[in-house]
Structures are given as C-alpha cells and as structure tokens.
From TrEMBL:
The lineage of its organism: Eukaryota, Fungi, Dikarya, Basidiomycota, Agaricomycotina. The keyword Transcription regulation does not apply. GO terms for molecular function: endonuclease activity; hydrolase activity; RNA binding; RNA-directed DNA polymerase activity. The keyword Oxidoreductase does not apply. GO terms for biological process: DNA integration. It comes from Moniliophthora roreri. PROSITE patterns: INTEGRASE (PS50994), RT_POL (PS50878). This is Putative reverse transcriptase-rnase h-integrase. Residues 674-816 form the Integrase catalytic domain. It holds the Pfam family RT_RNaseH. Keywords: Endonuclease, Hydrolase, Nuclease, Nucleotidyltransferase, RNA-binding, RNA-directed DNA polymerase, Transferase.
C-alpha cells in the first residue's frame, strides 16, 4: 500500500501459522517454528488429510492397509444402507398414543441441543416430524465435568412395545470360548446403533419433542427397548460364519478375534475386515487393538489361559467414599456384582450392605457396613486372577456351607502343576434354608456349585472330585426315604460322575471362607464339626425326626392327655398318685414308663412307625419284631394292633418277602442244644451270584443255631475255596466266640473238601452235612438266607452294586 502524501510504502502484516513438528525434521527439544507463509484452504485440507492418513497407517498392521478407509471417521458419517435387519417398533393393540411436556433448557443445554439437531439432520439420522406420538428430550451429565449427553425418554413407548426376546450373549460363555487362545484382535464398531435403520413406517413412533419442533429418528437410537436385541441379531447374522468356526465372539458392537498362531490370526482378521467392508461398516481406530497377547474385553483383561479384572475400572476403587444413600450403596454393589466371579466370600461380605437395600429399612451406615465396604475394596484392589476352564482336564470343587451362606471354588491344574481357581461362587441362604440340617446345607452348596458350572462338568471325561469337610454327605445316595427336596437334589446329582472326598475344613479354607460371615466371627459356629450319622432309630428318643413339635401340638387337643394332666395335678387320693407314678412331663412331651406318649392322631402314629420300619438299621421287620422296636421308645393305646396293620400293608415287604406259608412240607430244623453258648452250634451257607461290589459277589452266612439265633454276614467271592473259608471263620467267628462244637452246612464242595474236613478233625469240630437234594437239614440257615435276601431287595433294589455296604446294617438289624 502506497501513501502518496508521505511517499511511504506500507506492507500488510505477515500471516503467521503454527504447524506441528514432523518426525525426523525438528528436534523434540526445539519450540514450534513460526513460518511466514500464505496457504490456501485446499492446501490446509490436504495437509490435514495427510496427517490422518499417516496416523492410520502407523496404527494399523501393514496387512490391513487395504482397509484403511474402514477407520476414517468422516466417511463413517454416511447414512446406513437399507438392510434386512431394519428395526421394527411393533406396538401392542391396546397402546394409547401419548403427548409429553416440553422441558425448559438452560443456555448451555440449548447450545448442545442445537448442535445435536444440526449434526444429526446433516447426517440424515433424524428428520422433522408431525407424529401424534412424542417422547421427551432432555440431557444427562457425562463423566467429563460439564459435558452433557442428549437423551430421548422412551419409557412410555417401551411400555407399549411388543418385546423382542432375542437373547444377548452370556459374558461368561463368551469368555469360555477364549480357552487356548494366544493372539487377540479387538475391533469396536463406529456409530453403534446408528448403523441400523428404523423400518419404514415406524419412524413416527419414536418421535421426540424439542423447543425447535418435532423430530423423528431414521436410524436406531439408544433408549428403544428392542434396540439391543435388533443390533445383536444384526451382528450375529453378518458374522455368523466366523462365530460358528469358533474364532470370533461378538457382544453388541464389540468384536474379538482369537487364535493360537499368528499366521492363522492374520488370515482370519482379513476375512473379517472384508466382511465389514461388504456390509459398509466402520471401526473406531482408537478403540481397536491388533495382534496382541493381552486385551481388555467386556471389562475383563484376557491373557492366554487367564482372566483378570480391568485395572482401569479398578482405578477409582481406592478413592471410593462410603455411600451416604441407598442409591450410593446400590451403585457400589452394582459395580461389585460385575466382578463377583473373582471375589471369594462375596455374599457374606456384601450382606450388611444388602440389608440396607431392604424396603422400610432405615439407612444407617454401621461399623459392620464400613468393615464390609473396606474388605470389598481390598479384595478388588488385590486384582485376583482366574484361569480359563478346560473341559478336557479334570475339575475339583471345594464346597462348604455355614449358617448363613454356601460357598464353592472350581479348580483346575495349571501349567505349573498347582490347582488354580477357575471361579468362585457364594450365595446367601434364605431364612427357610438356614433351618436346614447341616448335611442338607452342605449338600445345597454342592447342588448350587453343580448348577452354576454344569456346562463345564456335565458329560465330562473325568470324575468330578468334590472336597467337603463333612463326612456324611454320602447319605443322599444311600437313603431310601428322601423328602421332595432331597429327591430333587439326588436326581440332579445322579447326572454327574461325582466322587465325594472328605477333607478337614482347614484344607479347604477358600470354600469355607466363602460361606463364612466376617462380621459375626464372635459367634461360635460348630456346623462343620464331624457329625456321626447314626441310624434313625437311635434318634427317636430325642424326637429329632421332625415330629417333636407335631406331638406337642397334638397333646393339647388329645382328650386322654388332658385327663392324664388333670390327674397329675391333683394332690388327693394316694391310689391315684400311685397309678400316675409311671407318668412324667419333660420338655413339653408326656412320657409313660420312660417312653414318649404319642397322641391319638392316626397320621402321627403312622409317621412314627414308618420312620422306624424303613430305617436300614431295623430293616422292614415282621409284626412282632416291629412292635418290639417301636415299644422301646414310644407308647400309645392300641399300638400293637396299629403296628400289625401297618406291617401287613407295607408295599416293600409285600414285594420283597417270600411266602412263608407254602403248600408243601415245611423245613425241618435240627433241634437246638439246650444251655449252649453263643455259636457253640452254628450253621453255615453261601449266597451266590450277587452283583459285583468291590470285587465281591458272594456272602458267607453263619448262624448261631441253638443260643441267640445271631448271625454273621461276611462278603467273599464265588471263587473262594475251602482254605479261604477256614480263614474267614477264624477272622469273624473264632476270634469273637471261640471254636464251635458243631458246624451244620449243605454239601457245597467247599464244605465237603478235604481241607475243611481235616480242619474239623484237628479242632474237634463235628461237621454235619445235609442229605442230597434235601436242604431242610440246614433249615436255620435257609431261613436266614431268605431274610438277608429280602433285606437287600428292600434297600438295594435301585443300587444293587452297593449291597456290601448294607451287610453290617443287615447283621445289626437281625441281631437286634
């Protein structure tokens, strides 16, 4: 510019721009260089494009450079193509169209709303509408301070929408598929739901109201109830081949590729990128990872063979302040529930916090709550690691139960030869479950563990070893009378190949800790002390069969009991006092001659008799033996007649016992020797061809012929010879009762053998054998054989290979 008055030339100020430093051109320690230059808009755009291209090329692997356009943000903002997966909004027939109020906006919110509308109108994601159905539009705060997220409130629309019940993948099931993977690639889809159009004709249903007018979305937005299902269908279908081949898992817009070797992994990654290009889908480069050995997927850190918690998500745990409201407690527990698989003792640690969530519960942050809160934070910050379950290797389950919860740990051997946890399980007991007997609670712990991990355990190659600190859990497989709950558990457990192993509680401290409640350690818990499972008959005096309360309740309604009490209270006539000397009251029960009086209630009497009659230690005895058994501990008027009627109607007895009144000549027993000692004269026989049990398939039966009629049952094999018979007699007869004077047997080759006869001569034992085809000579043993066969049929019909375990009980039942 020339100033003609002064004769001076004035130049405009030079334009100064600040450019970024290029690698290899400017030293890192030098400040930015100001360069005087004049550039056009096209030159500036070209420079920016060059920068983006360089950034993409540096961040993606070379073998994917042909797909660099899949990572460009600008290109991804195009309107999605029409697909077969367009989102339908189907309304219920009774749905009523609704209007909504308009919310006032602050200046900041107005700016954000206008920006949202302008951007989405430009992309074609929304359009102006005249819909009769509208939903509110408002903002929610983002994590970033001051940032706002525009949101449509579709709650009323969702209530009237027919639900799409297509399931989302189970996170744990997806993680299980990663077993054995060594290389990972994670891809994150750009624009998420916006990649799916809303079905033509349904856009008006999702319209929303603003102070700039009505707008309706043309693509799927967050907040619509069926959006997750529609999007998962879309992703599962376009990637179905890769999912079925077993090297790709998809959860919404998160895609994870995994493989065991690098070469195959690259081939699969290229195939998947080609598929995404075919369906015009784009990726967020900043959230993608390629060919790595450790990746964060669905909040979990995945390493070869291991799973850990995401340290980024745990970063704020240390500074998490104690909640001051129910909402704050719910937020903390929501975070914890996501990672509960990693935390032992979780149900117990969270119990005080969960109590704060109960209805009509006054919020009070107690010392117990603070302890639980601090312990949970410590557990999270310890960052525990789990190994991935491998169904081709054996599993061990450690299970335990306390008064408040059940706990379990699933373990497998790692490459170091040690048993590592695959997962933890901890669940609280309901008030009803807390009343279970300890062996039922221990069994419930096993039942819950098998239910939780059945997809690993069912149909496996190896026996599932269950470690428990309770010796008596095997009762569930031997009990003949189970309640409905036990029967249901037993049926479920029978589907698994289980091996129960008793170990001391200190050896399974993790599972034990899972079932302990940390804030109640002052109370002594003896649940896991060893309890000897005695036959039911031995519990009858203590009325521990669940009938004590029923008997006490019925006593108040029984006329006979009332009259007895009235007489007991009288202090008058001495004859009455004398007559009532056999009666007493103790712990709410009425005793007659030290036996529990059972009130005049048919159902209650039936339960008493049935419980004793079906106990393995008693063994379905006959009428008179049964009456003697019941009369030891109970009494009521007319009980003998009642017991006779019960035994006559017992279905098991009718099916198992033989007819003892045949239409032929009865067995002729040898006369008993008077004043003889036990087993001074004994009879002997073999029961053959039983189902094999611990390599045994035969029973040696020895009966005291003249004194006590007692028996000795000894398991043996069909191949047992005469010498072995002699050894068994020494082990089970001689050491207990001495040498017999006489032995009566049939003409089995073992008993007729020279060895056996010589033994009799040397020990002065007279051996009598029955005549040929006439076993009545040994009628005593034949009758006992019938009884033991009846007993085993009654108790082993469903588990015939376990008859050996019942022999001691059968011997006890007969001798008792």
């Amino acid at each position: 510019m020339i100033n003609w008055e002064t004769g001076e030339i004035q130049f405009p100020p030079r334009r100064k721009i600040q450019i970024k430093r290029f690698r290899g051109i400017l030293d890192n320690n030098e400040p930015e260089v100001l360069i005087g230059a004049k550039i056009t808009a096209s030159q500036e755009m070209a420079h920016q494009q060059q920068m983006v291209k360089r950034e993409i090329d540096e961040l993606i692997p070379k073998y994917l450079l042909g797909y660099r356009d899949r990572f460009k943000k600008g290109k991804a903002e195009q309107f999605p193509p029409a697909r077969a997966y367009n989102h339908a909004i189907d309304l219920k027939p009774d749905f009523v169209l609704r209007n909504c109020k308009l919310y006032p906006l602050s200046p900041v919110e107005q700016v954000e709303q206008d920006k949202f509308l302008e951007e989405n109108l430009r992309k074609g994601y929304i359009r102006k509408s005249k819909s009769p159905m509208v939903s509110p539009f408002f903002f929610v705060a983002k994590k970033e301070k001051g940032a706002l997220q525009p949101t449509q409130d579709y709650r009323e629309l969702n209530k009237g929408t027919v639900k799409n019940t297509y399931p989302l993948p189970l996170i744990l099931e997806l993680l299980d598929k990663l077993k054995g993977a060594m290389v990972f690639t994670k891809l994150d889809l750009r624009n998420g739901y916006n990649n799916v159009r809303i079905k033509d004709g349904d856009q008006w249903k999702a319209a929303f109201k603003t102070n700039r007018g009505l707008f309706e979305p043309t693509v799927m937005f967050f907040g619509l109830s069926n959006s997750p299902a529609t999007f998962q269908v879309f992703m599962n279908n376009i990637l179905s081949d890769f999912i079925d081949e077993g090297w790709c898992v998809v959860y919404m817009d998160d895609i994870l590729l995994f493989s065991k070797d690098q070469a195959k992994h690259r081939e699969w990654t290229e195939r998947l990128m080609c598929c995404l290009k075919k369906h015009d889908l784009f990726l967020k480069l900043e959230k993608c990872e390629f060919d790595v050995t450790e990746v964060v997927f669905l909040g979990m850190v995945i390493r070869p063979g291991y799973i850990a918690m995401d340290s980024v998500k745990l970063a704020g745990i240390a500074k998490w302040e104690p909640p001051q409201t129910v909402k704050g407690v719910r937020a903390f527990l929501g975070f914890g529930n996501f990672y509960r698989k990693f935390i032992g003792k979780y149900a117990q640690l969270t119990r005080p916090l969960n109590d704060l969530l109960q209805k009509n519960q006054r919020f009070e942050w107690t010392r117990e709550c603070q302890i639980a809160f601090d312990l949970l934070k410590a557990k999270f910050l310890s960052e525990p690691i789990l190994i991935m379950p491998d169904i081709d290797k054996p599993f061990i389950i450690e299970a335990d139960a306390s008064k408040w919860a059940t706990g379990a740990v699933l373990r497998q051997k790692g490459t170091d030869g040690e048993w590592h946890p695959c997962g933890y399980l901890s669940k609280s007991l309901s008030p009803m479950e807390q009343n279970y007997e300890i062996y039922d609670r221990e069994l419930l712990a096993i039942y819950r563990a098998l239910m939780e991990w059945r997809h690993y355990l069912m149909g496996g190659k190896f026996k599932i070893v269950i470690l428990s600190d309770h010796k008596n859990l095997t009762y569930i497989r031997m009990a003949q009378k189970l309640n409905r709950r036990q029967a249901r558990w037993s049926l479920f457990l029978s589907e698994f190949d289980l091996g129960l192993v008793h170990v001391p509680g200190k050896s399974i401290t993790q599972a034990d800790a899972l079932s302990r409640r940390s804030n109640e350690q002052d109370e002594v818990d003896t649940d896991n002390e060893d309890i000897v499972m005695l036959p039911d008959r031995l519990f009858i005096k203590r009325i521990n069969l669940g009938m004590k309360e029923d008997i006490i309740d019925q006593l108040g309604l029984d006329d006979f009991h009332k009259s007895a009490l009235e007489q007991l209270l009288q202090e008058g006539v001495p004859p009455i006092k004398s007559a009532l000397s056999d009666w007493r009251i103790e712990e709410g029960l009425l005793f007659f001659q030290n036996r529990v009086y059972v009130p005049n209630d048919t159902d209650l009497c039936h339960r008493v008799v049935q419980t004793i009659h079906e106990t393995p230690g008693v063994g379905h005895p006959g009428q008179w033996n049964m009456a003697e058994q019941v009369q030891r501990d109970f009494w009521w008027p007319g009980m003998t007649k009642f017991i006779k009627s019960f035994v006559d109607g017992c279905i098991v007895c009718q099916q198992s016992k033989i007819n003892t009144h045949p239409m032929r000549t009865p067995i002729q027993p040898i006369n008993a020797t008077p004043n003889s000692f036990p087993f001074q004269t004994c009879t002997m026989d073999l029961i053959m061809d039983l189902p094999e049990c611990d390599s045994m398939d035969c029973i040696l039966v020895v009966v005291d012929h003249s004194s006590t009629k007692g028996v000795i049952f000894t398991p043996c094999t069909k191949t047992t010879d005469a010498m072995k018979i002699v050894e068994l007699l020494i082990q089970h007869l001689y050491k207990r009762f001495g040498l017999p004077d006489r032995i009566i047997s049939d003409r089995d080759p073992r008993f007729a053998a020279e060895v056996f006869q010589e033994m009799g001569k040397q020990l002065s034992i007279k051996h009598l054998m029955s005549t040929v085809f006439h076993p009545q000579t040994d009628g005593e043993t034949e009758r006992v054989n019938q009884e033991i066969e009846v007993y085993l049929r009654a108790f082993c019909s469903k588990e015939q290979t376990r008859w050996k375990e019942y022999l001691p009980l059968a011997e006890f039942a007969h001798n008792n």
